[in-house]
Amino acid sequence: MKIYFVSDGTAITAEVFGSAMLSFFDVNVEKESVPFLTTVDQARGFCKQLQEEDERGDNTLVFFTISDPEIRAIIESGNSHSYNLFGDLLAPIEKALGVPAQPQAQKAHGMKQGVYDSRIDAVNYALANDDGVSIKHFDEAEIILLGVSRSGKTPTSLYLAMQYGIKTANYPLNEDDFASVGLPAVLRPHRAKLYGLTIDPNRLHEIRTGRMAASKYASPRQCRYEIDEVEAIYRQERIPFLNTTHLSVEEISTKVMAEMHLRRNRS
Amino acid sequence: MKIYFVSDGTAITAEVFGSAMLSFFDVNVEKESVPFLTTVDQARGFCKQLQEEDERGDNTLVFFTISDPEIRAIIESGNSHSYNLFGDLLAPIEKALGVPAQPQAQKAHGMKQGVYDSRIDAVNYALANDDGVSIKHFDEAEIILLGVSRSGKTPTSLYLAMQYGIKTANYPLNEDDFASVGLPAVLRPHRAKLYGLTIDPNRLHEIRTGRMAASKYASPRQCRYEIDEVEAIYRQERIPFLNTTHLSVEEISTKVMAEMHLRRNRS
Fold it and tell me: Where does ADP bind (chains A, B) (predicted)?
């Protein structure tokens, strides 16, 4: 089964939503995005391709989000399994909001300078404050992620910045910190912003082995030791923390947002 | 108008889809995500909150994606404007795929180790190969983004890695490169992977001023000069390129994916 995500924009909405729908089904599918389909000719060309695939006996399914009625009609006619993702909901929501839908409004929305800047600033901030490289800007941080090396700090920092425009710093806890009593001095002024990540020692061993095989750094014993120490710090200092072993970056980020009551800096 | 995105998972699907729907309407709304709503008690608590807001005369609208029928029923009963985002489409898609929807399948999907790793690897690769800091791994890159400082290389690299698991390097073109003839030697072996970013000089001036006001680096003249030079290189060397001035990171990334025929390394 071949699944197309077709859109006059990035097709990200069709992709995210369509993929979520498909995740309810235990089927193997091939996915392909068709973004920026904005002309009648492109629509006809795409339908021609669909028909050829149908004639070859390939099953295809199309999720689309298209504003232009003429183009939408062509896509709908091209496949018996074409789903207009906005189709059924637009009317009731018009009613709920009490204003008519304006297809053109969406394009205008595509890019809000302010929003864009807040996200890019946050990404640059996350990069500049990754892995404790620069601790002098911790006061700017909305959240400071703690954890041992390879427990998920950096991807989570970048995801929070990219998706939500949240200024995220992260600080790697290591043996120096384990040796000293209480929190590292640089973190003490920022207690309310601290959030800990932890991970199953065996999983950490796997990840570190992929990076530096047969090293002390990657040894099961070292991984166990570091995780024991870091979780002890979280408990002693009453720092909220999360085990990332079975979570995707999206799941980690949204759990952190919820627990720390962070609000996106973008519309 | 207050909009809630409610889910038994991250709520990202509800958020992306709901926000796309709302972008058709020229209304100011306050958005709030309610992720990981997985119990009847949580659902009742949320509905209670909705009712209080209704009584205060606040308008609320709820987009939700919930697998459990009992919890779903509670959410649906809680608000006259609750929209089950999967509701209308699941049945037809069951028919199209010829297999029944399995709510539980989704959770299993939540996190695929292989997929996760490919994305984290790609993010780590993008970080290690950001801004030309390490050119020795260019042969591993699926794409190498070119551009002057602040033209959007880094956020695009990270987005491509995070969202699509694509190993993206980037190389900043600067005066040394403008002075020399032809492509920088380090790029020549990778011609097929090169993609250029450019930006309106005035916008570049704005961005650089925010970073280093009243510097030569940020001066309108320097920005114009660098953009002229970089676009000349793209044209001479027949490197495909894109103007990022009015595009979001998502739009840049999906256009690059489409033009370079890149395929996501994740399901």
Answer: 147-154
